[in-house]
């Protein structure tokens, strides 16, 4: 332990090595429930690539595990410390190195906060789409590690689609450059993509070349009330089948609507079973919303309200953004699931979650990136009640089993971490797991990078 | 050898095992120049996943190398036979298994021809964008193996972005399922993406879940004549910097224009140094073309001609599509390069190619997916002239060196195969190559899958 700290100091400034146990304890975990966190030996806060290399060389020399961290807003425990590890926080590497409107790329360090980058590129008429709920806190490095999504994915895709190239410090401290800054490239296996969603198990991302898009027009939002989740899902399917390209297509169930009203007194319609929000950032969003409104009515919507302007649109989005915070007040604890099913299976998924809530006598609020089939059932329970906590955990698992049975995945955008480790093997199957382990072994033969995560 | 054929017959119908040497010789190579091809021991044409598994089990048992093939329209030698190998042709596995307009996916076997799929999905109002020049012949399996691109990539991206999930027969005959049919998913490392562009070195793709898009409106094309490549490239940069989203942005140099005129008497303007074609498939393409036309004029275009209708647009695209065939008539042989540079480096790339043509006293025609910075310099030479052939090869290499020096890649969409093997190592560097080899080893420990390709 003393040797570890001494060696780290050889290549890091004093203020970049934290050993005070109260301080290091505050780096122990991310925002996942039901995920164990150990006690880190030390927290390091490098500012340069060379310093990260020094940390990894030290870790390899002394065989100390390393847990990379961004803003710790993750929901799967992927950033949780293990006992005696080095927590490698990348938050001080937070420079935007370049924004190029012609090549439509940004080059950034991993600690850049998502919202900071989004605003910086917007100033140049550009757009970095991935927008996880935690976008004001979460870092690009964390987004890459978890493969983060957001509201815009139905039109613009997830983080993976915006990562063109990477610089990565390997477990042994060597520097790997992957990918490109060109629009296209097929030189060798796509190692860049391998790092996205790898939760820091393959290497430490220290620089990223990100693709940007031209800034779209401001979006306009519509709200539609449905008498059942099935009717709302039928509308979603029809909207997508007709070739519409909404910039957002979100669903909230009654439990969620009530929770949001309780929190923010927004006057959302509590008599409705499912509220659908659709948005367009097209040249003529009002026309697109009108067409989508008609599809909603045909699918059984009792009320269709297009926002008249940006302010009204913003209010509707605000309601959606408050969903998680609102549901967190329902019990004393929450577990957020992240099951993504084929769009055609959205209705049975949502109905199945309602049945699971009934079976376990739990409040499970559900909001969904409906256009993607990506549901977030949020199990609300009393964390101090052992029986209710056990039922919460069981219901959480049953939701994943349902998602897999419907041809879906256990995680659309939150990742595996510790929380869904056992389930990953069920989704991938033995052949898949064997190959994934093999790949991990290639990058991290000593097993020092975020051990115990993923599988 | 006799044992190999006998064992193959145990799991394959007689007509699926070809041993006639005249017949098997016709499967020896793809369309790449300067790439050696060996003599296959046997060609197999399985129709089912089980038959592919049988082939791979046999190959593993007898330690016989396997070269997977689609339509052999590749341009890098990736499908060339090696001596004594099993050529595994997937062209008989050509069923479209499913097209789902709600989930926006198609499920296909690898032997489906690109154009067949494109037409089938178009009938349902859907769009499968990747459109390599060989789209009437090439197969989806081959597109996945090479990571194929096309004209539409500037707006719609390459093959990789449309592959959601795969079924793959591994070297030892086991079946691996990767990825998903959902819109999103981050369960484990992205092995799906690893197979795209892997040139059959990691496994045999036997089924693919492909993402589809809604069919866009028909595109309208504009042609602009420029007095220099630099002026045309300045226009390209300006078009992209202003946030336009052309569905196609192509450049042809004088050598190419003349060759097309010689072939098809199309009356293209031979006095121009660079012809730029831009297209839009937006709701109001005429307005977008007008805006882009103004940018072209400001950048120095001497003539800007928007097509009046679909027929005129088609004629302009026809000229671009004829480029390669036309240049093939300039010499007796051609080498097609595929260097992709950042958009901002397109002008020095094109000027550099012109200088290389002059230095080596060769005709090098250049057309480019200019919006992507992806150039196709086409070296035309007399294949019977040893000195000229040597100069052609040298100029080809010098073009790649220039591309790398400008921050580009040796291959934007054609792949590495045999042709660019030595260059791949230069682009990836020693750390990158070591990891890529490690990954290959995980999937193919005996080195039986397309040995000698890539690296």
TrEMBL record, chains A, B:
Signal sequence coordinates: none
Cofactor or coenzyme needed: FAD
InterPro entries: FAD-bd_oxidored_4_C (IPR004113), FAD-bd_PCMH (IPR016166), FAD-bd_PCMH-like_sf (IPR036318), FAD-bd_PCMH_sub2 (IPR016169), FAD-linked_Oxase-like_C (IPR016164), FAD-linked_OxidoTrans_Type4 (IPR051914), Oxid_FAD_bind_N (IPR006094), Vanillyl_alc_oxidase_C-sub2 (IPR016171)
Oxidoreductase found in the keyword field: yes
Highest taxon above the source species: Bacteria
Keyword line: FAD, Flavoprotein, Oxidoreductase
Coiled coil: none
Keyword hit for Flavoprotein: yes
Domain FAD-binding PCMH-type: 36-215
Pfam families, A to Z: FAD-oxidase_C (PF02913), FAD_binding_4 (PF01565)
Protein name per Swiss-Prot or TrEMBL: FAD-binding oxidoreductase
Organism whose genome encodes this protein: Streptomyces fildesensis
Higher taxonomy: Bacteria, Bacillati, Actinomycetota, Actinomycetes, Kitasatosporales
């Amino acid at each position: 332990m003393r040797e570890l700290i001494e060696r780290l100091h050889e290549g890091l400034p004093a203020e970049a090595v934290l050993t005070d146990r109260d301080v290091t304890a505050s780096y122990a975990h991310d925002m996942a429930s039901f995920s164990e966190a150990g006690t880190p030996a030390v927290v390091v806060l490098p500012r340069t690539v060379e310093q990260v290399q020094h940390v990894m060389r030290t870790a390899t020399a002394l065989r100390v595990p390393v847990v990379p961290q961004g803003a710790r807003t993750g929901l799967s425990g992927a950033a949780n410390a293990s006992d005696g590890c080095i927590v490698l926080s990348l938050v001080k590497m937070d420079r935007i190195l370049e924004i190029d409107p012609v090549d439509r790329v940004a080059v950034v360090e991993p600690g850049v906060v998502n919202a900071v980058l989004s605003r910086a590129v917007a100033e140049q008429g550009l757009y970095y789409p991935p927008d996880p709920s935690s976008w004001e806190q979460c870092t690009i490095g964390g987004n890459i590690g978890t493969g983060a999504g957001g509201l815009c994915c139905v039109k613009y895709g997830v983080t993976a689609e915006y990562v063109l190239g990477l610089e990565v410090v390997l477990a042994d401290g060597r520097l790997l450059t992957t990918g490109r800054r060109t629009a296209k490239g097929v030189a060798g296996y796509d190692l860049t993509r391998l790092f996205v969603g790898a939760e820091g198990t393959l290497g430490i991302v220290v620089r990223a070349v990100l693709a940007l898009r031209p800034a779209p027009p401001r979006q306009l939002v519509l709200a539609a009330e449905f008498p059942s989740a099935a009717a709302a899902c039928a509308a979603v399917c029809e909207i997508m089948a007709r070739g519409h390209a909404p910039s957002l297509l979100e669903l909230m169930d009654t439990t969620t609507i009530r929770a949001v009203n309780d929190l923010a007194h927004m006057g959302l319609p509590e008599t409705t079973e499912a509220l659908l929000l659709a948005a367009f950032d097209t040249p003529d969003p009002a026309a697109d919303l009108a067409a989508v409104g008609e599809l909603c009515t045909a699918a059984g919507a009792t009320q269709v309200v297009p926002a008249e302007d940006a302010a009204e649109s913003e209010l509707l989005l605000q309601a959606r953004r408050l969903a998680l915070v609102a549901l967190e007040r329902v019990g004393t604890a929450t577990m957020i699931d992240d099951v993504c099913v084929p769009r055609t299976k959205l209705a049975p998924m949502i109905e199945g979650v309602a049945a699971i809530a009934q079976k376990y006598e739990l409040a499970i609020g559900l909001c969904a990136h409906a256009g993607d089939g990506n549901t977030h059932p949020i199990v609300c329970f009393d964390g101090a009640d052992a029986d209710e906590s056990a039922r919460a955990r069981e219901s959480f698992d049953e939701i994943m089993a349902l998602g897999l049975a419907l041809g879906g995945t256990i995680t659309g955008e939150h990742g595996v971490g510790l929380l869904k480790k056992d389930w990953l093997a069920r989704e991938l199957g033995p052949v898949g797991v064997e190959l994934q382990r093999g790949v991990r072994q290639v990058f991290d033969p000593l097993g020092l990078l975020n051990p115990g995560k993923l599988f």
